[in-house]
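Homework-ish question, so no full write-ups if that breaks the rules, but can someone show me the predicted structure for this set?
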Amino acid sequence: MKSSFKNHRQGHHFGLLCAVLFLAALLSLLSPQFLTTRNILNLLLQSSVNALLAAGMTLVIITGGIDLSVGSILGLTAVVTAGILQSPLPVPGAILGGLALGAGLGIANGLVVIKGKIPPFIATLGMMTLSRGLALSLSGGRPVTGLPREFLLLASSSVLGIPTPLWIVAAVYLAGTFLLARTNLGRYIYAVGNNMKASRYAGCPVPTTIITAYTLSGMLAALAGMVLVARLDSAQPVMGAGYELNAIAAVVVGGAALSGGTGNLGGTLLGAIMMAMITNAINILNISPFYAQILQGVVILAALFVHSAGKSPSRSCITRHYGPGRGQKFQGGEEV
Amino acid sequence: MKRTVLCILVTALMGGLVLPAAAAGRGEKEADSTAPVLGLSVSTLNNMFFVTLRDGAQEAARELGVQLLVVDSQDDPTREASNIQDLLQRGVSALLINPTDSDAIAPSVHRANQSGVPVFTIDRGAHGGTVVSHIASDNVAGGSLAAEYLLQKIGGTGEIAELQGIPGTSAARDRGAGFNSVVSGSAHVRLVAAQTANFNRTEGLDVFQNILQAQTNLKGVFAHNDEMILGAIQAAEAAGRARDMIFVGFDAVEDALTAVADGKLHATVAQKPAEMGRLGVITALNYLAGKPVESSIPVDLQLVTAENVDHF
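A: Not a homework solution, just the prediction itself:
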């Protein structure tokens, strides 16, 4: 059974990887500027914010939930962090404060979902509106600019020639993959998403698991916001509007099912990179903005198609995941 | 028990939100009960430009001693329609509308017409209904103004880029048209990249970063608004190419004025949002007083550069 767990969690990204590589090959044929170190680093840098949001979103989606509030939490924590940064408090204090706020909003999401028994879609929709409203009222609708140089280093510095945000993304994805593949919490996250009722009977701490997933999502949204603020040298209350949809798209392109129970971070990262690649290509090839969105939609759908073609149906996925015996039991539950 | 506590909490929360608002409303009303009441519907207060527009209108209203009720559509035509209905319900004497969308606003203008409330549009017009006056700056002229400055600064020759606004919006169309009419008339200037960054600073950064990759000889860039040009400047600075380029924005928002003063941004086209709001209130009051008003009231545009930035 252990091997079947591993098999599932490492995922099957062959189709998606092929799609990304094919796209990259096509683009380097079309433009000599595409396959340059600088452009690849830029592209990864541009994907970093979405990648951070999508990492948290992956955890939430695996539990069978969804977090629509990430874009607004990004905006609110960005404004608050920038506000603290302008006070005499030290930079690390502001960063911790912002992360704590993000985590707090995530906990609130989790509590509303679990204790309030409100569907995640609605609960996080409420948080989305609330956070955006707070961001706007706290900032008075104006951007917060003039941030300390040390904070801007978060985006402008690089280590070993690789921009710091990419190291942050790498750290988050490594830690997240470890969490999902090697810890009890990771096991619970998949179990809850597969069948909440059954996992509760099996002794899995459902409330804690779900609250933790939303908390991590909120905290990562705050982290993404800081990277964005450091890149722009300004925090704007409208920052991150609509980002939740990009994050969801990256997770789904990465192979997770919105019904929960499947997915992993490797796929999500590929999904986020692919989405940044499309925008990058549109700009480099100077494709008319009118066609750009059509192209984006087509490429995302094509990637989903390529990806799902290489995958077995989700039902057998669950069976594979838990082994035949438990799979049978799980299928007796309310969801599957 | 739990439910009772929850009910009390929710009620308390709602009370906390509503009472101060009601108190504020009362405070305004006490100012003058005989003067006309004007309604102002703003497309979104998420954008500094419209915040300034509202401030200008409020200031004019305060000076002239009239009450101004402001509603925020949050860029949502549905919310806008119900907001305007509320304003009509409250019996405003005239409506100043800064529409979210020129087409979507038409039914609301019709409704106001039916109620006999005169309508004035600000910044964006209405494709339907009867509007007394349209108060707006000439975006086409603004685009040309920007292009002329940019071309002169790069010495009338070289490659340039354009960061466009949200495709299909009139601002993007008009500013682009004005800009392109000047650029296409110049034989030695080539527009090598024209991409949208949706009026957004983050997208301005990402899109211009990509354009910089493809275009190695860029000498200048014009963006349809300041947010995008500020993002583009960040991108060029990160690539170490900011010094080789001329940046021209549009709107003259606070951050852009700071950037002009710092020498990072070379020029921005100043619309005068506060002036628009002020002229809106004045025009409406003139009309209510029976004075003749023009059907189209152009608001000046002006190029802001390092030389005159102190006056803004």
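Now go work out the reasoning yourself. Hint: The radius of gyration of chain B is 22 Å.
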